[in-house]
Design goal:
The complex is a heterotrimer of chains A (296), B (772) and C (157). Chain A is α+β, with helices and mostly antiparallel strands and 296 residues long. Chain A has three domains: 9-59, 2-Layer Sandwich (Uridine Diphospho-n-acetylenolpyruvylglucosamine Reductase, domain 2); 68-183, Uridine Diphospho-n-acetylenolpyruvylglucosamine Reductase, domain 3 (2-Layer Sandwich), CATH 3.30.465.10; 190-295, Enolase-like, domain 1. Chain A has helices spanning 21-29, 42-45, 84-89, 93-96, 98-105, 110-115, 118-124, 132-137, 238-244, 251-264, 275-295, and strands spanning 14-17, 33-36, 56-59, 69-71, 75-79, 141-147, 152-158, 163-165, 168-169, 176-183, 190-195, 208-216, 219-228, 235-236. Chain A has a five-stranded antiparallel sheet. In chain A, strands 11-12-13-14 form a four-stranded antiparallel sheet. In chain A, strands 1-3-2 form a three-stranded parallel sheet, covered by helices on one side. By secondary structure, chain B is α+β, with helices and mostly antiparallel strands. Chain B has three domains: 20-27 and 460-602, 2-Layer Sandwich (Aldehyde Oxidoreductase, domain 4), CATH 3.30.365; 34-128 and 189-241 and 245-278, Aldehyde Oxidoreductase, domain 3 (Alpha-Beta Complex), CATH 3.90.1170; 356-450 and 618-771, Aldehyde oxidase/xanthine dehydrogenase, molybdopterin binding domain (Aldehyde Oxidoreductase, domain 4, 2-Layer Sandwich), CATH 3.30.365.10. Chain B has 19 helices and 28 strands. In chain B, α9 (321-330) links the parallel β14 (299-311) and β15 (336-345). In chain B, α9 packs parallel to α10 (359-377). Chain B is globular and about 95 Å long. The model of chain B has no long low-confidence stretch (mean pLDDT 97). Chain C is of the alpha+beta class and 157 residues long. Chain C folds into two domains: 4-81, Ubiquitin-like (UB roll), CATH 3.10.20; 89-152, Orthogonal Bundle (DNA polymerase, domain 1). The chains are: A alpha+beta (296), B alpha+beta (772), C alpha+beta (157). Chains in contact: A-B, A-C, B-C. Chains B and C meet through α1 and α17 of B and α2, α3, α4 and α5 of C.
Chain lengths: 296, 772, 157
């Protein structure tokens, strides 16, 4: 919501109430589509002067196949319009992807969790997107579908190759996010999600940090560290991951990891927090994650 | 034997608010919901500059847009200005002085057309050098904001009592401090909105969220070029106000001018962003204090100077020193006082009044400073406060008799209930134990007026009470109920006197053409003053009824009582006659016919301050003490409040539900002030005009609150009650700051105690400790 | 003229139809097409909950819900809880507990509470406090609202 003189409302000129992926992708193939599911980002942004949206509104919230959560033996697949509440209410995800559930738990508010979808959180490409951080730790893939003139074709994009800038991604105008999938992490993975408070939710992260790893024979493996709101997109902390990978968690290593993390992120000052505080929080969260990892 | 009715006490009961059923069913219509036939919508074009000469405003394209009915600018407006010192033209035509400035306004068939029209308005400016801080604005050669005030000082107040030099001589310790308190804003859930309608003979009806409708007529009329008597203010239910509607702000005259130009009803409603940018804020203040004491911690003097960032125009923020001064001079006994305040024009947004009015700021400063003084004196926070506490009926340096106060009781009860001293000693021993999470406990107290404040020539309120043939009562009061529950309190007071059920009372308070005069809802005055007026009107009606009953029975009026809709014998409750039946008999009595009606105008026994700031301006005074226990995450700086103990002198409980609700709500607002509400203004521009970046307190952040009430039974207040609604907002923030210090050894002088500030201070403290 | 779409849905138990602009929010549809004013526009960005309604039994910010997405759904607003006879148990509880001050947030609070209540389940204070995290009240300090909801929970409504 902006001062009236500073906003340029999007006047949608056509509406497609899609009931299948086919229908949605065919409508997108025209090239002037805007996809809506929960509306929690779009309905705020559609009036902002610096945003432009295609005039054909394509509603995907009635596409049943996009609402499925499939827990496979090897892979987990979340339909793009699975909501944050769906994730929280699912009986299995709490064990399989606890960090993702924690992100959903800290996501905005109950009403928004009831509406906001996992696909929408990815598509919006906010640097502070809560759900994206644990998805990066899960090596998630974003499934993109489009109508190629004859049939639906799909491609999978790794989550960490998906985002390009604030609000921007590799998603093409004729493509629909249809699912997010990730490998089953197995039993008892270490997985944590941290988000700045002090509110339990209804907070845009000053910093969020996801951490996942396995501990085998006292050594950390499969280390993944991802952060939100420390750069133009949610990011992996690859240098820190590399430093920790395959190592025993000594005090020296922990200290080195904290310093490496500080070097490889370059947060900015903004109205929500200073670069100093973002660095401080990132360090605090990684420290806590490593502490917990050592305990587990 | 006749039926008997026992006496029932509705004063002090837990009563449901009269307006609650309509509100929970969604039937209440706020101005925001109102639609009148042929109504136009209006929007304001606001500047994006902070200080600039206006060269040209071109509205021609906007006027040509289909659906636009009128566009106005300053040239369409009368010359009358608004604001406390009349420095604010509702539509600016010469110069822009702050970001919210109104340059033009559009009335159109729909909101969407208004929005589109605003985008077609073109303005040419010549930027002027801006100034944003008091310090810079006071420098010689600083840009002048208001041409009539070349020194940039909008208002000045000075007070002294005793002799500072003598105070210094008597002092063993002098403690100095500097405290800057920040911008916050009201965040009413219902955004600013008004609806204006003009009659054929030029009279104006304004549906307004005003908190002071009767004085508003006087303040608004000059901006419209009409006689105040030709203004009628109607107040539909309000979605919160908290002081924000105690002045005329430009949108209201603008709305009326559009109605006059179009001859149609016009409604003007803010967006939430506009509400953040263009509403008054709480007054930010820079305090400097020097305070002395003996080695025993007995206060000797206080020398306090304050600078108020006035912003571009002068609203009630600039007058908050009248209340700040009272706390500075009179909270605790201090023989020698000096106080000065300067409100300094800048190109920032401007402040208005806000619940706690000048005292939220003063109490943050003073109660933080008192804790620092305790440490210097080697006393605990309770002892220093008890040693210096005001006693009942003591006279303040500004000439107020504090009456039946109980500050000592507030301190002792809150300390006892919270086990304060034991915890305070234990927690301060843990500063350097290396634990991440630390507990702390802190106390603060405050003094506030609790029986109005005579800032105008009158602080009165009128009541017109009528009874119908069925003993149903209509109470027309001047007092505004903005959700706080005064209608219910007034109904309780009347019900008690007239012995009728609460649901038989209708309180009407929303129309200046019906109700008698009142100053407005502010200064914790409505229960006290409107309550007294209602009580006196009800007593008058009661006497009329009992006199009639006396004639009909063998019992004298002083032996009769009104209970449960009946006249009864006071001693045994035996029914004499049904009240409604008696009223009908009085009504249909031929030549002696009489309707029961009563009017009252209550003027409290108070005096306005004289030019030396002397005067007993409130009919009652009150204190509260808050203790807060917190847990600090020393890594993230996040503070979790574990529990709050609140003890307040309330005079007498009238509606327990309403009292608790005011205290809980006031504390929530005070927690926001202390912990995270922060309207960030950079170079005159509001940086966070949205709830997503301006954090009001939400449900999971609310700690349990243990409330206790002291009933001092004020001799003048209705049933002994005092005003209660501001103190809870005033006291809590410094209690949190003091608890933070107790937990961590970190002292933050400039609120809010947001996580970043706390984390940084703790980090700096630990770095310093490491270095040493 | 903005492009309009015909939609049909159930509103407070009755079938209704409207032609709504594609850009309209569900809140605007409630307000403009059906004269329902209980759901309030107070922030327009999902941060305050004053516009909360139930969509197929699930609470949503109506200011962020596309009006066209109401098509085919079951929509409930606070107006539907009182139709001339007794108030809903929850509404009674709000009145009795002193959970209402200015009342602007109240309809949204009641609808969110409706969503939190599950038949026969007694809610804890903590559950309710978090359940209300998306509903801002500037007057009450929340405790009396929580009291009301806890009192109403576990009863048959």
């Amino acid at each position: 919501m902006a001062l009236p003189q500073n906003q340029i409302p999007t006047a949608f000129e056509a509406f497609v109430n899609a009931t299948s992926i086919d229908e949605a992708c065919k409508a997108l193939a025209i090239g002037d589509g805007t996809v809506v599911a929960g509306g929690t980002d779009l309905w705020v942004q559609k009036d902002e002067a610096h945003k432009t949206f295609g005039p054909r509104l394509i509603n995907i919230s009635n596409i049943e196949e996009l609402a499925r959560i499939e827990i496979g033996r090897d892979r987990i697949r979340l339909g793009a319009r699975v909501t944050m509440s769906d994730i929280l209410d699912n009986g299995d995800l709490g064990d399989i992807a606890p960090a993702l559930c924690e992100a959903a738990n800290k996501f905005a508010s109950p009403q928004i969790r009831n509406a906001a979808t996992i696909g929408g959180n990815v598509a919006n490409a906010s640097p502070a997107a809560d759900a994206v951080v644990p998805l990066l730790c899960l090596d998630a893939k974003i499934e993109l579908s489009k109508w190629d003139g004859k049939k639906i074709s799909t491609r999978d994009v790794p989550a960490d190759a998906f985002f390009s800038a604030p609000g921007q991604s590799v998603l093409a105008v004729d493509e629909l996010i249809t699912a997010i999938s990730f490998e089953h992490p197995g039993t008892n993975p270490i997985a944590r999600f941290f988000k700045s408070g002090p509110r339990p939710a209804l907070e845009i992260a000053i910093v969020s940090l996801g951490f996942s790893a396995r501990l085998a024979g006292g050594k950390l493996t499969n280390v993944r560290i991802a952060l939100g709101a420390v750069g133009p997109t949610p990011v992996r902390a690859r240098k820190t991951e590399k430093l920790l990978e395959g190592q025993r968690l000594t005090d020296d290593l922990k200290a080195a990891a904290l310093d490496t993390l500080a070097d490889e992120i370059s947060p900015i000052d903004d109205v929500r927090g200073s670069a100093w505080y973002r660095q401080h929080l990132a360090r605090t969260y990684l420290q806590e994650a490593l502490h917990d990892a050592a305990q587990s | 034997m006749n039926k008997t009715i026992d006496r029932e006490d509705i004063i002090g009961a837990r009563v449901a608010k009269l307006d609650a059923p309509e509100k929970v069913t969604g039937r209440t219509r706020y101005i925001n919901d109102m639609v009148l036939p042929r109504m136009l919508r209006a929007k304001i074009f606001r500047t994006d500059r902070v200080h600039a000469k206006i060269l040209k405003i071109d509205t021609s394209k906007a006027e040509a847009l289909p659906g636009v009915v009128a566009v106005i600018t300053g040239v369409d407006a009368p010359d009358g200005k608004i604001g406390v010192i009349k420095d604010n033209p509702p539509l600016k035509k010469d110069k822009v002085r702050c970001i919210r400035d109104e340059l033009a306004a559009v009335a159109a068939e729909t909101e969407e057309i208004c929005d589109a029209a605003l985008r077609l308005i073109e303005v040419e400016y010549e930027d002027l050098p801006p100034v944003f801080t008091c310090e810079d604005a006071l420098k010689p050669g600083a840009p002048v904001i208001e041409v009539d005030r070349p020194d940039n000082i909008a208002m000045a107040q000075d007070f002294s009592a005793g002799d500072i030099a003598e105070g210094e001589k008597a002092s063993d310790h002098i403690v100095e401090g500097k405290y800057n308190v920040h911008y916050v804003t009201h965040c009413n859930m219902g955004v600013s909105c008004c609806l204006a309608d003009i009659s054929v003979d030029g009279k104006v009806t304004l549906y307004s969220q005003s908190q002071y409708p009767y004085i508003m007529k006087m303040d608004l009329a000059p901006a419209l070029g009409i006689h105040p008597g030709d203004l009628r203010i109607i107040q539909p239910p309000v979605g919160g106000a908290f002081g924000s509607k105690l002045d005329v702000y430009p949108y209201e005259p603008i709305c009326v001018l559009l109605a006059r130009k179009t001859g149609r009803p016009v409604k003007l409603e803010f967006s939430r962003e506009e509400e953040f940018i263009a509403s008054p804020t709480r007054q930010p203040v820079e305090f400097r204090i020097r305070a002395g004491m003996t080695s025993d911690g007995i206060f000797t003097f206080r020398d306090i100077s304050t600078l108020l960032n006035n912003g571009g125009y002068t609203s009630w923020g600039a007058t908050t020193p009248y209340v700040t001064m009272r706390t500075c001079s009179s909270h605790y006994v201090v023989p020698h006082i000096r106080y000065s305040a300067r409100a300094v024009y800048t190109n920032n947004p401007y402040a208005g009044s806000f619940r706690g009015y000048g005292n939220v700021q003063a109490t943050w400063m003073l109660e933080t400073h008192v804790d620092k003084m305790a440490e210097v004196a080697g006393l605990d926070p309770l002892e220093i406060r008890l040693r210096n506490a005001n006693q009942p009926h003591s006279m303040t340096p500004q000439g107020s008799n504090l009456g039946c106060i109980d500050l000592v009781g507030c301190i002792k009860i809150s300390a006892e209930k919270s086990d304060f001293l034991k915890k305070w000693n234990a927690y301060s021993a843990q500063w350097d134990n290396g634990e991440r999470y630390k507990r702390g406990i802190g106390i603060a107290t405050s003094l506030h007026n609790a029986g109005g404040a005579k800032i105008h020539k009158s602080d009165g309120c009128g009541t017109i009470l009528t009874m119908d043939d069925y003993a149903r009562v209509t109470v027309m009061t001047g007092a505004s109920d903005i959700g706080q529950g005064s209608d219910t309190v007034i109904a309780q007071i009347v019900a008690q006197e007239l012995g009728v059920p609460l649901r038989d009372i209708t309180v009407i308070n929303n129309d200046t053409a019906l109700g008698p005069w009142d100053v407005g809802v502010h200064a914790s005055r409505t229960t006290y003053i409107a309550g007294n007026s209602a009580k006196r009107a009800a007593l008058d009606a009661r006497n009329q009824i009992l006199a009639a009953a006396e004639k009909q029975s063998n019992v004298t009026a002083d032996q009769l009582d009104l209970r449960g809709g009946h006249v009864v014998q006071a001693d045994n409750g035996e029914v004499v006659i049904e009240t409604g039946r008696l009223l009908r008999q009085m009504h249909f009595a031929g030549e002696d016919a009489k309707l029961v009606m009563a009017t009252d105008y209550y003027e409290p026994p108070t005096e306005p301050e004289d030019e030396n700031h002397m005067g007993d301006m409130s009919a009652a005074y009150s204190h509260a003490a808050h203790v807060a226990e917190i847990i600090v995450d020393t890594h993230t700086g996040e503070i979790e409040i574990e529990k709050i103990w609140s003890v307040q002198d309330v005079g007498k409980i009238i509606n327990l539900n309403g009292l608790e609700g005011q205290i809980e709500g006031g504390i929530a607002m005070g927690i926001g002030y202390g912990l995270h509400e922060d309207l960030k203004i950079e170079k005159g521009i509001v940086q966070n005009p949205a709830f997503r970046d301006y954090h009001v307190v939400t449900a999971p952040e609310m700690p349990p609150i243990d409330m206790a009430f002291i009933e001092t039974d004020d001799h003048e207040g209705p049933a002994g009650a005092k005003g209660i609604a501001e103190l809870p907002t005033i006291v809590i923030a410094p209690a949190l700051g003091n608890a933070l210090y107790n937990a961590t050894g970190v002292r933050i002088d400039h609120p809010p105690l947001n996580p970043e500030k706390v984390a940084r201070a703790i980090w700096e403290r630990s770095n310093k400790n490491d270095a040493e | 003229m903005p492009h309009k779409v015909d939609i049909a849905f159930t509103l407070n138990g009755r079938p209704v139809a409207a032609a709504v602009p594609v850009s309209a929010s569900a809140l605007q549809v409630m307000n403009r097409d059906f004269d329902l004013t209980s759901a309030k526009l107070a922030c327009g960005e999902g941060e305050c909950g004053a516009c909360t309604i139930l969509l197929d039994g699930v609470s949503r910010n109506s200011c962020l819900t596309p009006g066209v997405d109401l098509d085919g759904r079951d929509v409930e607003t606070v107006e539907g809880l009182w139709t001339g006879n007794g108030m809903d148990l929850l509404q009674d509880a709000f009145v009795e507990a002193g959970a209402v001050q200015c009342g602007f947030c109240t309809p949204g609070m009641v609808m969110q509470a409706k969503f939190l209540l599950a038949p026969g389940k007694k809610l804890t204070r903590d559950h309710v406090l978090r359940g209300l995290e998306g509903n801002v009240c500037r007057c009450t300090g929340y405790h009396k609202i929580v009291d009301a909801i806890v009192a109403a929970s576990g009863e048959t409504s």
